[in-house]
Amino acid sequence: MNWFQLKAFVKYKKVAKYKKGHRIHPPFAFDLVRHIFYENHPYYHFEEIEQIRQDLLNSRVRIAVDDLGSGSKKFRNNSRRIKDIVTYNSTPKKQGELISRLVVEFKPRSIVELGTSLGLGTLYMAKPDSKAKVYTIEGCSNISAVAKNTFEKAGLKNVMQLVGSFESQLPEVLKITDQVDMVYFDGHHDYDATLQYFKMCLQKASESALFIFDDIHWSKGMDEAWSEIIKDDRVSVSFDLFRFGIAIINKEVLKQHYIVKWP
Predict the structure, then answer these.
(1) Phi and psi of 217, rounded to 5°?
(2) Rounded CA gap, 39 and 20, in Å?
(3) Is 105 helix (H, G, I), strand (E, B) or coil?
(4) Which among 25, 77, 85, 120 would be 20 to 30 A from 150, CA to CA?
């Protein structure tokens, strides 16, 4: 946790006031927090994903990494062990499980992931429903190759991998999709890029689209980008869970923002 994140976390702990749905009155938001955010029932694929995570953590392989986004505050060079990428850059278990629960709840047909990494986050989105199509973009070809092996181990047939910058690949994805139901922003964590890709995805967003933003308090720029996103008129309900944020488009729901104590 960097200095900015530490200050943001202290602030979050002071202002977070919604836990397990308490004091959340609109049924839509209450049900999500009460029955999705705090659900403990394990899904069938959770154990399989954690076994794959463990296999990656046990790997002794080192690869060369090309950072096309805002870079890393953790690594000093571009030669990295797979186990370290899992530890510091992959979607954590609890966060991934909540993402899976959201996929089951919202039933998105078209999912876009910006930042494949080693593919663990992708598994949480692709495993719940084989009919959902997941388009995942990764800037580093070496990391993408490891992710491809991850998908093969998991037996996934509904994932389309793209290698290159988000700026070049996201427009290509949006061209071949009628609409976007869910987007997981998990890379290029800076102000301009986050807002740029958010606005691009909004152009194809369905009427009940779900946007998940990782590391919303990673830096001042990300913090400011998140603040603008939740103020956007097209976002009806948003949740700040500190490490990541959830923004939902639903014209039938009154605009509201919640800072939730989670987990």
Answers:
(1) -120, 30
(2) 10
(3) helix
(4) 77
